[in-house]
Specification:
The chain is of the alpha/beta class. Helix 30 runs antiparallel to helix 31. The longest helix has 23 residues. The chain starts with a helix and ends with a helix.
């Protein structure tokens, strides 16, 4: 490919967005409301609860306004570990029936990168939990969220908020929003919010809390009050120490107090004005089993927010399941509620900071971090192969020792649930100068980012991927990274930025020996031509992409699929059908199930364009069946939507009713 063929792409106004999907899809008629999920994402309370009656009263008062159809906002500020999350969990447990739309949770820290929060992606998670597919356009997600919550009374818990603007952007149409923050957020009072500061427990309340665990026979009132003082009056620390007292009936409370008093060189875990709980967590750490300590080290080294038993086993933690149970028992870990079947656990950021301090001087810290990065690279590779086994890859397969996924859908859901970990791991690998790991991770994450439209993660990681591929002296990887970044800009309709990435990628083409890598540039350039209203140019680009993929049967099928759509946009439906027939035969021979699902829908549109609605309905029905088998609901919805339009043309009431019924069953 010559350089000018890549660089000379977009000039002028864009037309029709994704013209690559051109064709009438008819009208969608839903006559009955479909069932919507009722999410329960706020965790259950952990145990005894004291001294928060005024705060609970504020929540109950806000709930009264919400029941009348309004919006309530309550903000709790205070030190890390003071009990904000436990307070909200307790309220949710007692009033869950008042929120028929469900309760949803978001930790803004998991979405915060370089000072900003990825609000569109956070809203995408809320929308999916509420049974609504988020719009691809990020700006539209805010309107979609308000629409989805207009007639649903939900409870939203926004954790680790830093700025009032973050809350304002996430306010639903109605319901109760509860905010937890270490920062004072007085500006939210102008939005009608009730803002309360949670202080540490008093000596009396803290002693009452501990006495509720250990019973009346252990420890004097003075010892318990001193324990509360040494733990800063913070329930998080009291929970950790109290749980170990429960596990060791012979351990006197006075001995714990004495050990806390005698410690020197405590780790400053929080900012100076907050507290110093280093000694408290030193004590908790030193009473852990060997496997519990190993898991604690993993928490301190892992750059991402979540850990799992599988990750722990992969990096060498023995008896990982028991270790997780031990750390949960001392309230170091909380279970994460998400849509994936794997159990994930989050450590409070106070605990993570202490764990980081305990691992700073570990001799094998670098090896443990490398093992974490290798795990994610291997698992991403396994997931990528599960979703698209034969697609072009520059890296050799890895992760063969890791568990397989039951289906491509399971692989995608796992990647999505781990998205915060992946971004953190990519960024940490880049900081460490592990360049090969960075671009290989980005290559494997392509399908996650493309399918779920995680644009901020997509763009941020691929900028690092480009830089790492350059440092790694891998021209083909540079081209791959720039092309994948170009596709992110293309999806966002930032066509000029996409074209710039293609032009920069083209500079590496003379150094690339694999012509399939060059073919991906022709493919993206073809999509840009379609978006720019130049189907004839798109036909030429996809023809070049097809030629570059000769010998790679999956690549040939994909480019034939693209070429057929360009031919249709150029008014050449008969030629498109001939190309699609060849691609279908090739996909059947190679058992390319993903393309066998996609090809019939384009064939249906081509037949419809030629005035052949019966054949069009047959192919659309084939697509719907295959999509249902694979759990590809978006593609199935496209097929049934087309079938509805065809049913009107054929005057086939039975076909129309079948498609309407199936559309009612599908997620939006």
């Amino acid at each position: 490919m010559e350089r000018h063929e890549v660089a000379n792409t977009v000039s002028g106004a864009t037309v029709g967005g994704h013209v690559v999907q051109a064709g009438s899809i008819g009208a969608l008629h839903l006559h009955q409301p479909r069932a919507v999920p009722r999410p329960h994402q706020i965790r259950s309370p952990h145990g005894p609860f004291v001294n928060r009656e005024p705060e609970l009263a504020a929540l109950t008062e806000a709930l009264g306004r919400v029941v009348e159809g309004g919006l309530g906002v309550v903000v709790f500020t205070g030190l890390g570990g003071v009990g904000k999350t436990e307070l909200i969990a307790r309220f949710t447990e007692e009033h869950r029936e008042q929120f028929p739309g469900g309760d949803l949770y978001a930790d803004l820290k998991a979405y915060r990168h370089q000072g900003g929060v990825d609000l569109p992606e956070l809203l995408a998670g809320f929308l999916r939990a509420l049974g609504t597919e988020p719009p691809a356009a990020e700006a539209e997600r805010f309107t979609a969220f308000r629409t989805a919550t207009a007639e649903r009374r939900c409870l939203f818990f926004l954790d680790n908020v830093e700025h009032a603007a973050e809350v304002r952007a996430l306010l639903p149409a109605c319901g109760l929003v509860v905010v937890a923050s270490r920062r004072r957020l007085p500006a939210l009072r102008t939005d009608g919010a009730v803002v309360r500061r949670l202080g540490p427990l008093s000596a009396r309340a803290g002693a009452e809390l501990v006495r509720g665990w250990v019973g009346p026979g252990r420890g004097t009132d003075g010892e318990l009050a001193e324990l509360v003082e040494l733990c800063g009056g913070l329930p998080l620390a009291l929970n950790a120490v109290g749980s170990q007292l429960l596990d060791r009936d012979h351990l006197p409370v006075g001995r714990v107090v004495a050990e806390l008093h005698d410690r020197e060189g405590r780790l400053a875990m929080l900012e100076d004005e907050e507290s110093d709980l280093g000694a408290t967590y030193d004590l908790v750490y030193e009473r852990l089993s060997a496997s519990g300590r190993a898991l604690y080290h993993l928490i301190g080294v892992h750059p991402g927010p979540f850990v799992s038993a599988e990750l722990a086993r992969a990096v060498g933690v023995e008896r990982a399941g028991q270790a997780i149970g031990e750390l949960r028992g001392v309230h170091v870990l909380d279970e994460v509620v998400d849509g994936d079947r794997e159990d994930r656990f989050r450590a409070h950021d106070v605990v993570r900071l202490h764990a980081y301090g305990r691992t700073r001087e570990l001799a094998d810290r670098g090896e443990l971090l490398a093992a974490v990065v290798a795990y994610y690279r291997g698992r991403a590779s396994v997931a990528d192969r599960a979703m698209a086994g034969s697609r072009l890859r520059l890296q050799d397969p890895s992760g063969d020792e890791l568990p397989r996924f039951a289906s491509d859908t399971a692989a995608l859901e796992w990647l999505y649930a781990e998205r915060a970990n992946f971004r953190a791991v990519v960024e940490e690998a880049a900081r460490q100068g592990w360049h090969g790991e960075v671009w290989r991770l980005c290559e494997s994450l392509w399908l996650l980012y493309h399918d779920r439209r995680l644009y901020q993660d997509w763009i941020a990681t691929h900028r690092l991927g480009i830089e790492s591929a350059q440092w790694d002296n891998q021209p083909a990887a540079v081209v791959r990274m720039r092309n994948q970044l170009a596709r992110a800009h293309f999806d966002r309709k930032e066509y000029r930025l996409a074209a710039e990435q293609l032009a920069l990628a083209a500079e590496q083409v003379p150094l690339v020996t694999d012509r399939r890598v060059v073919g991906v540039l022709h493919e993206t350039d073809g999509l840009l031509c379609l978006a720019d209203g130049r189907p004839g140019d798109a036909v030429r680009r996809f023809t070049l992409a097809l030629a570059a993929n000769r010998g790679d049967e999956h690549g040939e099928i994909v480019q034939s699929y693209n070429l057929a759509q360009a031919l249709m946009a150029d008014g050449r439906a008969q030629e498109a059908l001939a190309r699609l027939a060849e691609a279908t035969a090739q996909a059947e021979r190679t058992r390319d199930d993903d393309m066998l699902m996609k090809l019939p829908l384009v064939r249906a549109r081509a037949h419809r364009a030629l005035g052949q609605p019966e054949l069009a309905a047959a192919h659309a029905g084939d697509c719907a069946r295959r999509a249902e088998e694979r759990g590809q609901y978006a593609k199935e919805a496209q097929a049934h939507t087309l079938l509805l339009a065809l049913a009107e043309e054929l005057d086939d009431a039975e076909l129309a009713e079948r498609s309407r019924a199936r559309l009612r069953e599908l997620p939006e």
